Amino acid sequence: MTSATPPPSPTGPTLFGDVLALARRSWIRQMADGLHRRGYDDYRPSDAAVFRRLLRGPAPVGRLVGVLGVSRQAARKIVEGLEQRGFVTTGRDTADARRVIVSLTPPGEAYARSVVEVVETLNRALTRQVDPDDLAAARGVLLAVIAGEGGGRPPAD
């Protein structure tokens, strides 16, 4: 198998960051399309990370900060949006009233499972298109990019 390469740029070689940005935009569009076909028309890029974590059980907003790689305030706004969309509920931690716990609603659990299924479908399609060694190398490069941002640490789950 051969890996897909971007077309040559008319102004010179395509820079890695440009390809990375285009790939992210394409992945998000493919996620949105896959979820649209399943009846979900309001996919947001933060949904995948949040739902994959919440499928393992309720979590405090602070845990979602690490998953999303955003500030606590940004995580709260994301959670508020999910709550307005009917996918999560929030409540105070019984052991520590300062902590807000986020839980999936039944519609949120169905949406979360659809998100995971679409991710798995896209991953399977990619493994059919790209040589496994190329995928392993790309994963290594992407993890290095992530580690460079986080001071050498991969993002928290």
Give the biggest sheet. Answer: 3 strands, antiparallel
Our count of helices gives: 6
Q: So, the CATH homologous superfamily? A: Winged helix-like DNA-binding domain superfamily/Winged helix DNA-binding domain
From the alpha carbons, calculate the radius of gyration and give it in angstroms.
18 Å
Mean pLDDT across every amino acid position: 87
- Second rung of CATH, namely the architecture: Orthogonal Bundle
Please tell me what the overall shape is. Answer: globular
- How many beta-strand elements? 3
**Approximate strand percentage:** 5-15%
The helix-and-strand class reads mainly alpha
The proportion of residues forming helix, as a percent range, comes to: 55-70%
What's the domain count?
1
What is the CATH first-level class name?
Mainly Alpha
- N- to C-terminal separation? 32 Å
Runs in which pLDDT lies below 50 for 5 or more consecutive residues are: none
Q: Could you characterize the architecture of this molecule?
A:
- Helices cover 61% and strands 8% of the residues.
- It has helices at 16-37, 45-54, 61-68, 72-84, 106-129, 132-149; strands spanning 59-60, 88-92, 100-104.
- The protein contains 6 helices and 3 strands; from the N terminus they run ααβααββαα.
- β2 and β3 (100-104) form a beta hairpin.
- It starts with 15 loop residues before the first helix and ends in an 8-residue tail after the last helix.
- α1 crosses α5 (106-129), α2 (45-54) crosses α5 and α3 crosses α4 (72-84).
- It is globular, with a radius of gyration of 18 Å.
- It is mostly helical.
- It has a single domain, classed as Winged helix-like DNA-binding domain superfamily/Winged helix DNA-binding domain (Arc Repressor Mutant, subunit A).
- It has a 3-stranded antiparallel sheet.
